[in-house]
Design a protein that fits this description.
507 residues, mainly alpha, Growth Hormone, Chain: A, phosphate transport, Major facilitator superfamily (MFS) profile domain-containing protein, MFS_dom, symport
Amino acid sequence: MALKVLSALDTARTQLYHFKAIIIAGMGLFTDSYDLFCIPPIMILVGRVYYENENLSDEEKYRVPPAVVSTMVAIALLGTAIGQLVFGRLGDLVGRRRVYGLSLTIMVLSSIGCGFSFCTRKSSCVLGSLGLFRFALGLGIGGDYPLSATIMSEFANKKTRGAFIAAVFSMQGFGILTASTVTMVVCTIFDRASNISPEDLTPRDADIAWRIILMLGAVPAAFTFYWRMSMPETARYTALVEQNVVQAARDMEKVLEISMNEFVEENPPLPTPPPYPLFSKHFFRRHGRDLMACSWSWFLLDIVFYSSNLFQSQIYEQFLPRKKRVNAYIDAFDVAKLQAIIAICSTIPGYWFTVYFIDIIGRVRIQAMGFFCMALVYLAIGIPYEKHWSNDANAGFMILYGLTFFFANFGPNTTTFIVPAELFPARFRSTCHGISGAAGKLGAIIGSVGFLWASHEKKEQGYPRAIGMTPSLIILSGVCLVGLVVTLLFTRETMGRSLEENENDDL
């Protein structure tokens, strides 16, 4: 399809609007990571308020049961998977811009709703309503995944498209850091303002603190609402799906700061949509391999990535041993501080290594390297875990653990978000990205629930925790190796090519 407006997009110089689009599109990913990483310290506050059990040891006395924690995580992930499927399809049927504002609205309102979880006296009632709002939050976040990736890919030029989409995804790193920072600030303010005595381990206003932390996650997303509503529809959707080339040229004149006369054709060739419907035999013959590769890669990655996030609970116990009992604010503060250190030292650098190298090395090489290095690191942690790490965590352990996040983000965690936005035709692009992402969230549910079961089952039977951890980590290494095989055998490289060149490959 030799439309001038699409050629202008592919060759356009980097402009201010591209950076503005990164911020706008990245707020959904920011909210996603904020919501995920504020949960560990919040569960500490919730446990202190609602789960005190005098019959248990000091270590277990205030702990929210692992089954409850995994349920809270799984509910949000289920909502995210459904949101990716529904909003991904709507993005192709209705348009990217029209659906974009709806997903943001759901995110903002449900984030606020999490803080207003009602029935404050019974833990089951509070966490039930919190789970409902987190499910709604997951719907909004899930809708943002395919729309953000698709919009950024359709606005970017072909030389720096990977870096722009990776920059959108890197907003997750800043969401993690912000969640940790907000938690530390809120806990410090409440700790100092409450004048808590050393004996008062569960101050009354702790129930307010965790609600404020959750609601503050809605603020950055809300600030981008006007920008989202003022964004034009992407030229590729307007020209290739709606078949309105003139309107696409008008919209791009506002975005690219180029005169419309430079890329308007007097008699433009009429874009013809693919003559085959979604999920037809022709679709699977041409795009089935790509959809399978994207879905399986994301599925395998999220099993590992979300398991690794939940593994932090083990890290906290080893790196934050309690010589004496402390109040809820200090406990939550220390957990958030450790999260912030990991984010600054490994998570955020991993994202930005991808931003820099993605259009130099390529998607497939980065994804394969990430899977391979993660597999090695998990083996290095898992095989000697029982003898070396389980009783005496040290700096070497933290370095290895941080490397799992670095190579996840300088690897498949970022590339699985990028590649589905580049491989499929415009009329299927958002849908296929949503399907790939939903497969990933299915893996995340399996990883989060399965990992918690594996690491706690043996402990509840009286065995040391390491007996459950060692096989779990080795299994995660094996999953990474399967992801490496899928990447090398089935994933196509998209670097340096226009979206139309990628979608026209007849495989």
